[in-house]
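User: Just a sanity check before I run the rest of the batch. Below are the C-alpha cells for the first item. I only need the designed sequence back.
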C-alpha cells in the first residue's frame, strides 16, 4: 500500500468517479476510506464515523461479517471462476438458486437469472419482459412504463426508464417507447396533493390514462421501486403498489419490482414487494445479496413467467442474454453465506425498530431547523431530508450549503449522502440505538453550523 502522502497527492488524478464531475473531484478530493469495522468506516487520517450510507445501500450486515468473508476465501480456493453459459454450471450457484427459491416463495418467485449488479438486473428484466410477450405471440408489447423520480441504474435500458433528468439528458437519445407517470411524491407533484392516499389514487389514474393513450397491447412492463430510493426516499401510500399490480394484471402488463435496494430487509420486511403485499412478475436484486462484498445480482422470476419460457417448443424462449460473471461461483458462495446470516439475525426486525427511531429523530430536527423542508422515511432504514432555502416556497437549497451540512456531520461522527437537495441515509441494518443517536447528533451539528 502506498503511503498517505502518495494517496492524497494522486486522489482523483487518474480515475473518474461515478456520479461526479471530474473537475469537481479534482478540486474537492473525495474522502479516502481505508478501513471499516462493524458499522463504522475510517478515513486515511484515522477519523472514524458511523456509516449512515451503508456503503451504497448495500452493506446491510456491516463491514465485519466473518461468514461471508470466509465463504469467499474458501470458494476462491475451490473454484475461483467458471462460466454458467449453456453447458456448464457450478455447485455454489445451484445451491444458491434453491435457497433463493425458498426465500422468495412468498413473493411468488421461483427462478433466478444471475447478473453482476443492479443495473444488469434491471436490463435483464426489461429484456426478458419483451421476450416473454414474444413467446406469448404478443410481440407488439415493447413499451415500458415507470415513475418519475424512479431510479433504475445506468445502462441504456435502465436510464431510459429512469425518472430523473440527471441520469438521462447527457446520454439521450435513449431507448424508444419508455413513458413516465407522476410519482406518489407528496412534497412535490403536479396535482398539488399532499394527502398520500389521495395522491396514490391520482397517480394510479394517471397510469390508467397513459395505458389507454399508449394502448395496453403495446406495453410490455411497468417497473417501479417499492420505495423510491435514489430519487430521495419516496415511500408511496400502502394502496399504491397493490393498485399498480391490479392495473397491470388487468391489462396483461408485467410488473417489474426493482428491489436492488429494498430486498433482504431494508424496509423492515423481507422484500419491498412483501411489505406492500404484492407479488411481482420479476424482481431485480443485487446490493445486499452479498452485503456488498462481491459484485453480484439476481433477477427473480415468477412461476407463470417461467412456465411460458420453459414450455416453449418453438425456440422463441432461447435466452440470448447473459454476462461473463452471471452465476459467478465466488459471488454465489458469498450470497449463500449472506442470506444465511441475514436470516439468522432477522434483520428486518432491527431495521424496522431503528428506522422508526431514526425517522422520529429526523422529524425532531425538522421542528428545530427551517432549512428542512421535508422528512421522508418510516419504512425501515431508508430516510431522507429534503433541504430548502425557503420552506414556504419549497426553494431547493444550494450545493454549497448542503455540502456544509454533510462535511460538518462527517466531522461530528457520521457519513451521510447528499444527492441534489436531499440528505439520504441508508445505514447497515445491524445499527444500534446508540449508532442512530450519533447520526442524529452529527446532523444536528451540521445544521447548527449554517
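Assistant: Here's the designed sequence for the first item:
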Amino acid at each position: 500500500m502506498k503511503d498517505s502522502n502518495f494517496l492524497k497527492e494522486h486522489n482523483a488524478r487518474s480515475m473518474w468517479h461515478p456520479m461526479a464531475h471530474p473537475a469537481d473531484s479534482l478540486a474537492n478530493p473525495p474522502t479516502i476510506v481505508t478501513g471499516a469495522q462493524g458499522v463504522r468506516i475510517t478515513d486515511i487520517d484515522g477519523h472514524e464515523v458511523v456509516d449512515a450510507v451503508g456503503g451504497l445501500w448495500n452493506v446491510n450486515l456491516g463491514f465485519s461479517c466473518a461468514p461471508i468473508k470466509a465463504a469467499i476465501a474458501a470458494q476462491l480456493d475451490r473454484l475461483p471462476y467458471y462460466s454458467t453459459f449453456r453447458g456448464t454450471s457450478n455447485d455454489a450457484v445451484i445451491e444458491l438458486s434453491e435457497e433463493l427459491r425458498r426465500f422468495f416463495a412468498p413473493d411468488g418467485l421461483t427462478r433466478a437469472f444471475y447478473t453482476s449488479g443492479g443495473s444488469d438486473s434491471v436490463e435483464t428484466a426489461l429484456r426478458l419482459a419483451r421476450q416473454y410477450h414474444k413467446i406469448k405471440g404478443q410481440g407488439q408489447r415493447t413499451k415500458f412504463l415507470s415513475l418519475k423520480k424512479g431510479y433504475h441504474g445506468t445502462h441504456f435500458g435502465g436510464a431510459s426508464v429512469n425518472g430523473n433528468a440527471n441520469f438521462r439528458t447527457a446520454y439521450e437519445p435513449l431507448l424508444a417507447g419508455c413513458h413516465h407517470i407522476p410519482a406518489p411524491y407528496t412534497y412535490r407533484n403536479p396535482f398539488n396533493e399532499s394527502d398520500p392516499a389521495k395522491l396514490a389514487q391520482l397517480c394510479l389514474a394517471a397510469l390508467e390514462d397513459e395505458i389507454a393513450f399508449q394502448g395496453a397491447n403495446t406495453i410490455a412492463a411497468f417497473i417501479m421501486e417499492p420505495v423510491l430510493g435514489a430519487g430521495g426516499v419516496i415511500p408511496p401510500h400502502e394502496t399504491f403498489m397493490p393498485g399498480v399490480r391490479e392495473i397491470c394484471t388487468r391489462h396483461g402488463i408485467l410488473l417489474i419490482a426493482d428491489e436492488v435496494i429494498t430486498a433482504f430487509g431494508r424496509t423492515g420486511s423481507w422484500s419491498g414487494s412483501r411489505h406492500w403485499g404484492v407479488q411481482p412478475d420479476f424482481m431485480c436484486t443485487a446490493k445486499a445479496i452479498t452485503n456488498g462484498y462481491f459484485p453480484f445480482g439476481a433477477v427473480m422470476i415468477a412461476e407463470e413467467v417461467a412456465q411460458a419460457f420453459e414450455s416453449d417448443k418453438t425456440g422463441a424462449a432461447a435466452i440470448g442474454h447473459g454476462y461473463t460473471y452471471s452465476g459467478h461461483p465466488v459471488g454465489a458462495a458469498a450470497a449463500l453465506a449472506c442470506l444465511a446470516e441475514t436470516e439468522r439475525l432477522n434483520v428486518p426486525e432491527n431495521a424496522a425498530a431503528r428506522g422508526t427511531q431514526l425517522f422520529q429523530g429526523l422529524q425532531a430536527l425538522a421542528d428545530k431547523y427551517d432549512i428542512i423542508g421535508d422528512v421522508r422515511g418510516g419504512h425501515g432504514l431508508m430516510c431522507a431530508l429534503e433541504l430548502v432555502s425557503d420552506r414556504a416556497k419549497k426553494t431547493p437549497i444550494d450545493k454549497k450549503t448542503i455540502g456544509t451540512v454533510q462535511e460538518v456531520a462527517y466531522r461530528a461522527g457520521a457519513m451521510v449522502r447528499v444527492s441534489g437537495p436531499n440528505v439520504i441515509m441508508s445505514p447497515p441494518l445491524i445499527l444500534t440505538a446508540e449508532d442512530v443517536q450519533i447520526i442524529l447528533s452529527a446532523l444536528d451539528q451540521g445544521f447548527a453550523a449554517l
